[in-house]
Design brief:
3-stranded antiparallel beta sheet, single chain, 0% helix, 85 residues, Immunoglobulin-like, 6 strands, mainly beta
Length: 85
C-alpha cells in the first residue's frame, strides 16, 4: 500500500490467470480500514477475457472522506471461466 498524489491510500494489484482456461470475468475488491478497523472506503475493478498465463496490472485507490487515514486493507477476488462451446 502506498500514498498517491492525492494523499490517499492506493494498492497496486497484479492478477494472473494460472489456469488452463480463459477467465470470462475477474473482479478485485479492496476494503480500506482506519486504525480502529473501521471500514472507510472500498474500490473495485474488473477485466473480461483474461487468457491463460496472461497478467493484468492495475491500481485501486481509496477515495473520499477518511481515505487519508487508511492503516490496513483487505483484498478479495472472484473469477468466472468462459464455458466451452
Amino acid at each position: 500500500m502506498t500514498t498517491g498524489e492525492s494523499g490517499y491510500a492506493e494498492v497496486s494489484v497484479t492478477v494472473k490467470n494460472v489456469g488452463s482456461s480463459t477467465i470470462g470475468f475477474a473482479e478485485v475488491r479492496v476494503k480500506f480500514y482506519n486504525a480502529n478497523k473501521t471500514l472507510i472506503g472500498t474500490s473495485s475493478d474488473g477485466i473480461m477475457n483474461l487468457s491463460p498465463n496472461e497478467s493484468w496490472d492495475f491500481t485501486l485507490k481509496c477515495l473520499g472522506a477518511g481515505c487519508d487515514q487508511v492503516k490496513s486493507y483487505e483484498i478479495t477476488a472472484t473469477a468466472t471461466s468462459t464455458s466451452a462451446d
